[in-house]
Write a structure and sequence with these properties.
The structure holds two protein chains of two kinds. By secondary structure, chain A is an alpha/beta fold. In chain A, the strands form eleven sheets. A five-stranded parallel sheet of chain A has the order 3-2-1-7-19. A six-stranded antiparallel sheet of chain B has the order 1-11-10-4-3-2, with no helix packed on it. A three-stranded antiparallel sheet of chain B has the order 7-8-9, with no helix packed on it. A two-stranded antiparallel ribbon of chain B has the order 5-6. Classes of the chains: A alpha/beta, B mainly beta.
Chain lengths: 851, 124
């Protein structure tokens, strides 16, 4: 113990420095400073906590740093470390013995983890036999692999396949032996196991299921030579790795007299406490409600609850205890490059349940849904080979949302372009009638970007709506052909948008010229210029039409209005939350009348005024600004609207004031430039009249607060937003959204909506939660500060533009004349104007445009 | 919907005309001039001045002057281009050729700068 600390400072001793033990340290330190709490970690391994989930990457070159904590980190946080194995605990005197020293504790936490289970097979002590648990194990396996040709993993579960991946990396002829009839028996069913098996065998890994090892044979020097199975067959090998499950490390707890389960595990209650009031257990060594959790996520949840409860019990924190009430075992992972997802009742053990499945032996995919007998709710499922829908299906499972579509439609693979198609050769471009096969043929013939695909096939040259599908198809097809797929923005910047964002942020670049000089080539183009313009706006929030930035903007941002098919613009004032006064409506009507504009109510609860000539825009804005309006940013890749219902203010069902929250959110995030447009909605009750779950971020009232959903959208591929957090207060909603939006702005690709961003985020929703709720990366404060900066520097772009004569001058149709564009002609329809079609145009030239 | 380029309009030869001051065009962007009833897009890019017909042949809309300019590489050479704001069709700034559809081009006019003024002239 550090002598500088007052003797009254409470002391927590943690036995074990694994992932969960480390998370516990973080959680304790986040809530109690070194002055308030003394922490000592006992580490048996010679290194502190490291990322065991990615253990096999230790064999990669370059070798990644897997450590989660270092001596220096802990020293800086005032966390003491004692290397050695705890050998004795005295519950009476509250003392623990380690490496010949005795430490006194006020609270003791077992975070001893687990040990690999080695089945009692004769010959298991032969040299060349290993377990797969620690970095030292991996180093030993690597050393032995140098002299070996073949390696066998006993155990075809999750860890066994990880271990097989490691042996394959070491260049061994690799085999997996599984006792059950199929791989991953704890997660998969027979068909899923078979799908996984085909893919793994395709990689050259031998898979032997339904095999019980009778003995391990060795030659006279004691080195392993092979395995004999009970069915009389044999497998020759010179290296064996046991991966037949784990057993909780409860030996010390057992010896101490703490309660342990029949099959092992230190018994804990919902607060993480053992049967001694001063002793707790977390992670794989703990037995909660009859269950051992071998995954890291439930361990982290235990660490979080236990940290709070320890601090509360020590009198450092006040407030309510936190409870761990068990965890969902749903999991999504990548094994040997194969995606596997398992959620809810994956194996269909619910009485009377119905299963629907889809298996594709060529793509190597298998999807299964377990639904209630009447098919109305998803109870669980399995995904092998493609887990793109994992989050959505998990969400359906956990929320118990009644299905509105037949369950089988949920597992049919997405169609290119999102269109509903029955033919195998999908129509990608309906303007030019180009099918997937034609595009694939062009890619096979050497087309390597969308521009050349457009050129050879004509696809995407019409309305352009299929260009995102072309991008997707191109990437998929190139990967299939084994080509290197780059995520470079364009020929001028060899970086992805996220990389460029980080470069600009870290180097604090402020203008296009600086960015191009530092990181680009040529003069830029219609792709990279608006992207850089958007990044600069996200970071610095300067007026997008100011001289250094104006040349980067697409016409919509350049003229702060939306260009329409005949080159005129539409104008949309902001109507926060869709709430508008009678005077406001009259003012908008007066502007429409004065400038002869077509009016339409939008889906985002505001009013669009179409048919504005460029030269009229400043005058239109002046009228709107005088009536109290500002830009609605309908033209920007930025926040559009926050739609709302009338909520508890008017509605007899409403439970919260959705309109006020919508107005607050819209005013907070207005003008935020982002990779794509952002839409939001707030509903005052679960009836969801504001359609919040079809938005990039949607908030739905509960009687205890607000639920936040993220990653929804309408458009070509509609997606329901998924639940991020529940029962938050308004201020908590704001903090969470600040982080979410800034994290999206920083890391998404160009023109990537939040739904695809979330889908492509490695680790998906869980990872997003780890980053923006648990602050896994330690960037939350920075994200919040970024948003504060945005909010603090917001200005109305319309007002700024009309006030600057040099900007106003750019709105003239002709630089050398006050004439109007005669090409713009109108036709009357249902009492308003609309653009004339080609056959209705009066031949030019004619005197004056009809406006 | 199929968009076919408008039939090549008659592009009359225009007289040399002073269009504006070079400083009236924000570097990297264009403006539109009305010369003898014709819309001419005038760009100020990389220190040079270019003049093209303003009509986007793929949409029939006078919009090229509002397009984003940039560069592309052809045969190892860096060339300049403009992208129409309507459907992002691109055209070579010097030759007016469509970079999407071979055979389609917009008219190109001669330009010169004189004492800080931009002049455009006959079809190039």
């Amino acid at each position: 113990m550090t002598p500088t600390q007052a003797p009254s400072t409470p002391h927590v001793v943690i036995i074990g420095s694994g992932m969960v033990g480390h998370r516990l340290v973080e959680q304790l330190r986040a809530q109690a400073s070194a002055q308030a709490l003394n922490i000592t970690v006992l580490s048996e391994e010679s290194r502190l906590a490291y990322d065991r989930v990615h253990l096999s990457s230790h064999l990669d070159d370059p070798q990644p740093d897997l450590s989660l904590a270092t001596d220096a980190d802990y020293a800086a946080q005032g966390v003491n470390v004692v290397y050695g194995r705890a050998t004795d605990v005295n519950l009476e005197t509250r003392e623990v013995t380690v490496a010949g020293r005795t430490l006194t504790y006020d609270a003791l936490v077992f975070a001893t983890g687990s040990v690999p289970f080695v089945p009692p097979v004769p010959g298991k002590e032969a040299s060349g036999c290993f377990v797969y648990r620690t970095l030292d194990d991996l180093d030993a396996i690597r050393a032995a692999a140098r002299a070996a040709r073949t390696g066998v993993v006993i155990g075809g579960g999750l860890l066994g396949l990880e271990a097989a991946g490691a042996l394959r990396k070491l260049g061994l002829d690799t085999h997996v032996v599984e006792f059950a009839p199929h791989l991953m028996p704890a997660q998969l069913d027979a068909e899923g196991g078979a799908t996984l098996r085909r893919t793994i065998e395709g990689m050259g890994i031998g898979v032997h299921t339904d095999k019980a090892t009778e003995a391990i044979t060795a030659h006279e020097h004691g080195h392993v030579t092979g395995l004999n199975f009970t069915d009389g067959t044999r497998l020759e090998t010179d290296l064996v790795v046991f991966s037949a499950g784990i057993r909780p490390r409860d030996d010390l707890a057992r010896q101490t007299g703490l309660g342990v389960g029949e099959r092992g595990g230190i018994q804990i209650d919902d607060t993480g406490r053992t049967d001694d009031p001063h002793v707790y257990a977390v992670g794989e060594c703990a037995l909660h409600d009859g269950r051992i959790y071998g995954l890291v996520a439930p361990g982290y949840q235990m660490a979080k609850a236990t940290a709070t409860n320890v601090l509360r019990d020590l009198g450092v924190l006040s407030g309510e205890p936190l409870h761990f009430r068990g965890a969902d075992l749903s999991t999504k992972l990548k094994l040997l490059g194969v995606e596997v997802g398992s959620f809810g009742d994956a194996r269909g053990v619910t009485p009377g349940c119905r299963t629907v499945s889809l298996s594709d032996n060529v793509r190597g995919t298998y999807s299964k849904l377990v639904v209630s007998a009447d098919g109305s709710r998803v109870l669980g499922g399995l995904l092998v080979g493609d887990t793109a829908r994992y989050s959505d299906l998990l969400d359906l499972t956990l929320s118990g949302t009644p299905l509105t579509v037949p369950p089988e439609t949920l597992i049919v693979p997405p169609l290119p372009g999102g269109a509903v198609m029955t033919s195998a050769d999908a129509l990608i471009c309906s303007c030019e009638n180009v099918r997937e096969s034609a595009l694939c043929a062009a890619i096979g013939d050497g087309a390597r970007d969308v521009a050349s695909l457009k050129k050879c096939t004509g696809a995407g040259t019409g309305c352009g709506g299929c260009v995102p599908s072309m991008h997707g198809l191109l990437q998929t097809e190139l990967r299939r052909l084994g080509e290197v797929v780059t995520n470079h923005l364009c020929e001028h910047f060899p970086y992805s948008r996220q990389e460029l964002f980080d470069l600009i942020r870290v180097r604090d670049l402020a203008t296009w010229d600086e960015v191009l000089a530092a990181h680009g080539t040529g003069l830029g183009c219609e792709i990279c210029k608006p992207t850089v313009g958007s990044i600069l706006a996200s970071l610095h929030n300067e007026l997008v039409v100011a001289p250094p930035h104006a040349p980067l903007q697409d016409t919509n941002d350049a003229f702060l209005a939306n260009i329409q098919k005949n080159g005129t613009y539409s104008v949309m004032p902001r109507v926060p939350g869709g709430e508008i006064t009678a005077d406001g409506l009259i003012a908008i009507g007066a502007v429409a009348k004065r400038f002869g504009l077509y009016c339409k109510i939008t889906g985002g609860q505001r009013i669009d005024l179409l048919g504005a000539h460029r030269d009229d825009l400043p005058a239109i804005w002046e009228d709107l600004i005088a009536a109290g309006f500002e830009s609605g940013h309908a033209y920007g890749k930025s926040l559009r609207t926050v739609k709302s219902c009338v909520g508890s203010t008017w509605c007899r069902y409403g439970v919260q004031d959705s309109t006020s929250l919508a107005v607050r959110l819209e005013l907070r995030y207005r003008g935020l430039r982002s990779p794509h447009k952002l839409k939001s909605g707030v509903s005052g009750c679960t009836r969801e009249c504001a359609e919040a779950r079809s938005k990039d971020f949607g908030i739905i009232a509960t009687d205890r607060g607000w639920n936040v959903y993220v990653g929804g959208n309408g458009g070509v591929t509609p997606r329901h937003a998924v639940l991020l957090a529940s029962d938050l207060s308004e201020d908590e909603v704001i903090t969470l959204l600040d982080r979410y939006l800034m994290y999206y702005v920083r890391t998404a690709d160009r023109l990537q909506r939040t739904s695809t961003w979330l889908e492509n985020l490695d680790g998906g929703l869980e990872y997003l939660k780890a980053v923006i709720i648990d602050d896994h990366l330690g960037i939350c404060a920075e994200l919040e500060a970024g948003m504060e900066r945005h909010v603090g520097t917001y200005q109305d772009e319309w007002a700024a533009a009309v006030a600057d004569p040099s900007i106003r001058a750019r709105f003239r149709t002709f630089v050398n004349s006050d004439a109007r564009d005669e090409g713009v002609q109108w036709v009357d329809e249902r009492g308003q104007i609309r653009p004339a079609f080609d056959h209705e145009l009066t031949p030019l030239p004619m005197a004056g445009g009809d406006d | 919907m199929t968009l076919t380029p408008a039939p090549a309009a008659v592009s009359p030869t225009l007289p040399w005309t002073r269009v504006c001051a070079v400083s009236d065009i924000l570097p990297g962007t264009g403006v539109c001039a009305l010369i003898d009833g014709q819309q001419v897009a005038v760009f100020h890019v990389a220190g040079r001045v270019f003049a093209l017909g303003n009509l986007d042949p793929f949409t029939g809309v006078g919009a090229l002057s509002r397009g984003l300019t940039g560069s592309y590489t052809r045969d190892g050479q860096t060339r300049l281009k403009v992208a129409s704001p309507l459907l992002k069709h691109t055209f070579d700034l010097e030759t007016g050729e469509s970079l999407d559809t071979p055979g389609v081009r917009v008219p190109v006019y001669a330009t010169r700068t004189e004492g800080g003024d931009v002049w455009t002239g006959s079809l190039a």
